[in-house]
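Ticket #4471: structure export looks truncated?
Reporter: QA, pipeline team
Priority: medium

Steps to reproduce: submit the single chain below to the structure queue and open the exported record.
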Amino acid sequence: MNWLDRTELLIGPQNIEKLKSAHILVVGLGGVGAYAAEMLCRAGIGQLTIVDGDNVELTNINRQLPALHSNLEKRKTSVMAERLKDINPDIELTIVDEYIRDERMIEILDGNFDYVVDAIDTLAPKTFLIYHSVQKGLRIVSSMGSGGKFNPELVKSSDISKSYNCNLARMLRKRLSKLGIKKGVKVVFSPEEVDEKAIRLEEGTNKKSTVGTISYMPPLFGCHIASVVIRDLVTLEQPSE
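Actual output as written to the record:
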């Protein structure tokens, strides 16, 4: 039996072929991006390029798909590549095991992608990825902040111009606006208020704070992102009235 039989029953054989022929770029394999990549793989996407430059760490275990005690200190790209191949041995995978920025990011975006998934959690490269994806005419969906969020019923997708009550979205809108981009970028976000008690200030070089997270929220963002990509790639016939 075809492993995509149930998916085909839902969306039809023509749309299965659309997904099989699609090439998606997923940047960031943390709590959001790894789940997005897996949901795309399980839907039958034929080609994925996955990008991350990080190892699995102990503090990832509460929310990230690659994070098991048996995987600690392993490269996230390696763990995810093995997992995706185990789901679909025929999937074409390109692995970029590095943090991408500047000219390297532009180079990667020349890969003729049908969609770009932005699951980066750092503002500068996130802005850069979105800006250059738009400049190249690539469709992109970007994850806003899932940290500090608790209620899954509030997660939604919209144009970035309609996002609200999310600090990451606010800072991103400000930076993109300076670059001439005020709309035309799909985002997944939650307008839920973040409790100040869920934020711990840090003195590290790479970040100024740590925000609390719950197991189900980053995966839910990832699933929403995968749904945006898949629904944009396929066309379902609407029932006649």
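Status: closed, not a bug. The export was complete when the record was re-opened. Leaving a note from the reviewer for reference: The longest strand covers residues 23-27.
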